[in-house]
From TrEMBL:
<dbReference type="InterPro" id="IPR050562">
    <property type="entry name" value="FAD_mOase_fung"/>
</dbReference>
<keyword id="KW-0274">FAD</keyword>
<keyword id="KW-0503">Monooxygenase</keyword>
<keyword id="KW-0560">Oxidoreductase</keyword>
<dbReference type="GO" id="GO:0004497">
    <property type="term" value="F:monooxygenase activity"/>
</dbReference>
<comment type="similarity">
    <text>Belongs to the paxM FAD-dependent monooxygenase family.</text>
</comment>
<dbReference type="GO" id="GO:0071949">
    <property type="term" value="F:FAD binding"/>
</dbReference>
<dbReference type="Pfam" id="PF01494">
    <property type="entry name" value="FAD_binding_3"/>
</dbReference>
<keyword id="KW-0285">Flavoprotein</keyword>
<dbReference type="InterPro" id="IPR036188">
    <property type="entry name" value="FAD/NAD-bd_sf"/>
</dbReference>
<feature type="domain" description="FAD-binding">
    <location>
        <begin position="4"/>
        <end position="330"/>
    </location>
</feature>
<protein>
    <recommendedName>
        <fullName>FAD-binding domain-containing protein</fullName>
    </recommendedName>
</protein>
<dbReference type="InterPro" id="IPR002938">
    <property type="entry name" value="FAD-bd"/>
</dbReference>
């Protein structure tokens, strides 16, 4: 059997990995449990220059531009409307990195990523809920709830926070290495999508800072993405996404001023999508076992405050793809041990950076909801670290990239 990667999960990270493998000449197939991709999820997504650069490399940046809006800056204020600060830092991203920070919605992102797939009917299979992974010395078999199965060389679990692949790994690995729930939450989240109202400017993010809570509004070209973070007692109870947001959960925010003319309820009352979930955080101790590896939310959860979790997952996809491509170049049928070594190198290369993003994002959030008003200097210190971390991000090493945009801060890779 020729080397074939089985990707489980058609979220942003699984779809991005599919594009990266394809561009790097590695055969793959992707299985998604939902009946369709994309989803109609209730929240937007930030893409940072490390990802917009790779979208350029993959030939997808023009399509992304059509469905996203570049971020320009942030306004910070108190619930009464008192302005604390205003900046244009996001717009500096072009000059610093050659690429923008953009905001889009997940459905549009999925469409862009799907548009990059050659012969999607052969490679993307929906309605396939993974139930079992069986590893053998030279291959893996994945089994689905509909009774079908498929064989490949390795499995990459991009199946999100409650990963079935992670559960399956635990039957092969020593006891205790893969926990049932490796994450915990200290914040509850509410999110929604509402129209653009007068006084809300596309690309200009808004943060309103309360005692133990934060509201974010990120206006894209056609809508406003709303997020509430509310501090809760730390828990590792599983509280999955729910589209039902109880009125009492948002009542206290109704009259919070987002701008001079717009309150939270002005937007919320016109929402066309909503949801609530706990914001889990954590990094799994072990990212792989045997011929199976994990990626994206299946292995790391970062507070959404910084808007980087999916970006980190996508960068991980580049790192993993590069290492697989190097292995396969002279060795088209690697042994389990050789594959394991690649997975181990993938984890080693990324886990320090992932933990840094996770700590920065959490510190940023804790600073934003401080009792005596936000610690803007601390948040500024986090922001100051970001360009250097971004500039160390990976791209696809085996994919030509002659027309990379010029940047003031050189990319390390
Ligand atoms: C409110 C909020 C805002 C956020 N904002 C940002 C942001 O601005 N920027 C950012 O980078 N990140 C953001 N994040 C984080 C981001 O959403 C996640 O990091 C990202 O969705 C992870 O992508 P993924 O593909 O790993 O997992 P998921 O998006 O969870 O996708 C997993 C996929 O696997 C499928 N699946 C699950 N189980 C199975 C199975 N057994 N068989 C087959 N398929 C299966 C699922 O149906 C799903 O399609 C935010 C998160 C939240 C909650």
């Amino acid at each position: 059997m020729a080397f074939k990667v089985i990707i489980i999960g058609g979220g942003p990270v699984g779809l991005f990995l599919a594009n990266g493998l394809q561009a790097s000449g590695i055969d793959y197939v992707l299985f998604e449990k939902r009946s369709t991709i994309p989803p109609s999820t209730a929240f937007g997504i930030f893409l940072w220059p490390q990802v917009t650069r790779m979208m350029h490399q993959l030939g997808l940046l023009d399509s992304l531009r059509k469905v996203s809006h570049p971020m320009t800056g942030m306004i910070h204020s108190m619930p009464t409307g008192e302005l604390l600060s205003s900046d244009t830092n996001f717009s500096k991203s072009y000059k610093t990195h050659g690429y923008p920070v953009v905001v889009t919605d997940r459905g549009s992102l999925a469409q862009v990523l799907l548009s990059g797939i050659d012969k999607p009917e052969e490679r993307i299979h929906t309605g396939k809920q993974l139930t079992n992974v069986i590893t053998r010395p030279d291959r893996v078999t994945v089994e689905f709830a509909d009774g079908t199965s498929f064989e490949g060389s390795i499995v990459i679990g991009a199946d999100g926070i409650w990963s079935t692949v992670r559960n399956q790994i635990s039957q092969y690995a020593p006891d205790g290495l893969f926990l049932d729930n490796p994450y915990q939450a200290s914040y509850q989240g509410v999110f929604g999508r509402a129209p653009l109202l007068e006084g809300i400017t596309s690309g200009q993010g808004i943060e309103v800072h309360g005692d133990g809570w934060l509201i974010q509004a990120f206006p894209s070209q056609k809508e406003t993405h709303l997020f509430i973070y509310k501090s809760i007692k730390t828990t590792n109870e599983r509280v999955p996404f729910s589209p039902n947001v109880p009125e009492e959960l948002i009542a206290e925010f109704a009259n919070v001023r987002l701008t001079d003319n717009v309150t939270f309820k002005d937007l919320w009352n016109q929402r066309f999508a909503q949801g609530t979930a706990n914001f889990e955080e954590g990094v799994v101790e072990m990212w792989h076992w045997d011929r199976i590896a994990l990626i994206g939310d299946a292995v790391l959860k970062i507070s959404p405050k910084q808007g980087v979790a999916a970006n980190v997952g996508m960068e991980s996809a580049a790192c993993l793809t590069n290492k697989l491509a190097a292995l396969l170049q002279n060795n088209p049928k690697p042994t389990t041990q050789e594959v394991s070594k690649v997975f181990s190198a993938y984890q080693c290369e990324l886990e320090g950076k992932v933990s840094t993003w996770q700590r920065l994002s959490r510190f940023n959030l804790d600073s934003a909801v401080s009792k005596n008003g936000p610690r803007l200097e601390a948040m500024g210190a986090v922001a100051a670290r970001v360009p250097a971390i971004v500039s160390r991000s990976f791209k696809f090493e085996r994919v030509p990239f002659a027309d990379q945009n010029a940047a003031d801060m050189p990319w390390v890779h």
